[in-house]
Amino acid sequence: MTDAGRKRPSTIHEVARLAGVSHTTVSRYLQDKDNLKPKTRLKVEYAVKALDYRPNLVARSMRTRRTNRLAIVLATGPHFPGRQLAAASEVAHQAGYQVEVVSVEGGPRARAARIDELARSGQVDGILAMSSIDLKVTKSLGVPLVRSESHDEKLRVLGDLAGAAEVREIVEHLSSLGHRTFLHVAGDQEYASARNRKSVYLETIERLGLHSFGVIDGDWSGQSGYDAIAALPAGCGVTAVVAANDVVAMGVIRGARDRGWEVPRDLSVFGWDDEDMGRFATPALSTVAVDREAQGRNAIARLLAEIRGEPAPEPSVHTVNRVIHRESTAPPPQADGRSEAQ
Amino acid sequence: MTDAGRKRPSTIHEVARLAGVSHTTVSRYLQDKDNLKPKTRLKVEYAVKALDYRPNLVARSMRTRRTNRLAIVLATGPHFPGRQLAAASEVAHQAGYQVEVVSVEGGPRARAARIDELARSGQVDGILAMSSIDLKVTKSLGVPLVRSESHDEKLRVLGDLAGAAEVREIVEHLSSLGHRTFLHVAGDQEYASARNRKSVYLETIERLGLHSFGVIDGDWSGQSGYDAIAALPAGCGVTAVVAANDVVAMGVIRGARDRGWEVPRDLSVFGWDDEDMGRFATPALSTVAVDREAQGRNAIARLLAEIRGEPAPEPSVHTVNRVIHRESTAPPPQADGRSEAQ
DNA sequence: AAATAAAAAGTGATCGATCCACTTCTGAGC
DNA sequence: GCTCAGAAGTGGATCGATCACTTTTTATTT
């Protein structure tokens, strides 16, 4: 039934024979159509079309030692960076690269090992790591490696790490509303983004002379937010919670309600990610809108630049995170400061 | 600095020379280590280790005409099937395949065209389509193609289509609570799963002699749920909403609240997907837990079976969807039937 | 111990493209 | 009409594996 489809694809030699030229001429045609005499070009063009010829990319790769393929390494887990991935893969395709997505079970060492294997297999021209990896294992790979959570030369944080400014803005805003005692329910500390937000949180609390009741190391889950609130001693004085993301924030809000605390009347809660659900929740979540597509695009752009040997890949699209104030934040119960409600 | 890493990787011939055997013997060692004399095997083993040899997979592919690579084709859009993808890629790796993820902009025809191109490029041994594609274009590809939303030989629905039973269960349950007038806010009708749920919804309404106030064709977004409720005429009598997914359900609930209707007092709402956020929302969302990993695993298992030429790929792990009753559903305002609250 | 079968190892061709070192056109200038 | 530079075209080598065959070694039987 599918015999027609299964017939062996035609080769460059068959095209050459039909066109009455040598295989080298066909090869030239494939790489640069303008470098041929118009008459010759037409003959080849016709033969290619007649035989429905497609170059065998494996054979090409073997000879050129380039595969035109990139690998993106992810961790398996609750956080699948789908939007970044889609954007990254889009940009890569436009640049003539195919994208292989490798999601690896296990920790940073397992991922580093897989990266090593990928690099040596000769199957990819470059690797983008979208999750933390063990540095030691990845010294000299032979192919460019970009880590989406690393810094650029000017120590500007990129990709996953971006967001320090937003944490500052959140804490400062809550402080201006009159909040004095904070709680941070952090994300899985294996993630650079979680570590970064945690440290910026602590730093800002310190700088503003506020009080942090503590940092709960969570795992990005709603349950971790719920449990954090459930474990809070009565009268601890916490009036504002900075959650690792919207899901955690939702758990926090539910935990509060189940203890009889209303949000935002008794407790203000900030999320992160601007998920669609949080916008329609009650109370609607105050959060940070993250341009995930830009993250993905920038990361791939950096990788492509490194592959081409270009030195400084200035992020063409600047990642813009935006703090969004909705209903889950308000002045604390007995705000003594002048309530500068937004 | 990275000179050590950039040196040309060693070949099978170098290993052979160091081991004092022929390259064929090394090749044999690579495919089946047990087929060698122990003494020879040790020599080769040593040489492989000493040179840190890794076979060049491109060269291997060229000779064997197998790439050990599968492509998974996705649509770009709000629905990124991350969990299915991760599970699928995991299973594929265990079977010795690498996975290339191709997300394609545009509609079913664009995806079909890309699939055609992939198949002919000789770069993949099989293709899994995780989104709807235009059938006509994909007649004879030359490589196996599995569509995750299609049926198996026994016409049991698989993958995305699974879920008919759950829609029935939801409507029957709501009916047993006393609801008579329903609304369905459907997902993007380009998705097979959305079409399937819609038709099962209508069929069940019909079969039970209930009344459907209508079906709103949405786009999986919270806004579409919100708008559906906002557009509802007063006194339409709708007391139960079956939403396309949890996000839509959240929009519905918010829309109801903004009209002064309380959920579940005035309106019952069912979601789909069992997202973490819905569990902690207030009211907690009644929903359907979907085993996305199983979907991904099953789809890849079918593809692998087809590649191997095995005929009947019995789904080793059966997809189990589970209807979960939480706080967003209750008897209607003036339930005249016997309220059989769960 | 010789005959024979079976297992192990070696030889050279092959996959389908690109690239290198040449040879053969083409056409402008005198 | 001739020369000659440069463009266009050619044949064969090459990339690094596997595979079909052939040859050598080892094991088994009589």
Protein described:
The structure is a homodimer of 342-residue chains. The first copy, chain A, has 342 residues and is an alpha/beta fold. Chain A has three domains: 12-54, no CATH class; 62-156 and 294-315, Response regulator (Rossmann fold, 3-Layer(aba) Sandwich); 161-286 and 325-336, Response regulator (Rossmann fold, 3-Layer(aba) Sandwich). In chain A, 42% of the residues lie in helices and 14% in strands. Chain A has 13 helices and ten strands. In chain A, the strands form three sheets. The first copy, chain A, has a four-stranded parallel β-sheet, with helices on both faces. A four-stranded parallel β-sheet of chain A has the order 6-5-7-8, with helices on both faces. The longest helix of chain A has 17 residues, at 192-208. The radius of gyration of chain A is 27 Å and the shape is elongated. Chain A starts with a helix and ends in an 18-residue tail after the last strand. Residues 1-5, 151-159 and 335-342 of chain A have low confidence and may be disordered. Chain A binds a DNA duplex (30 and 30 nucleotides) through helix 3 and helix 5.
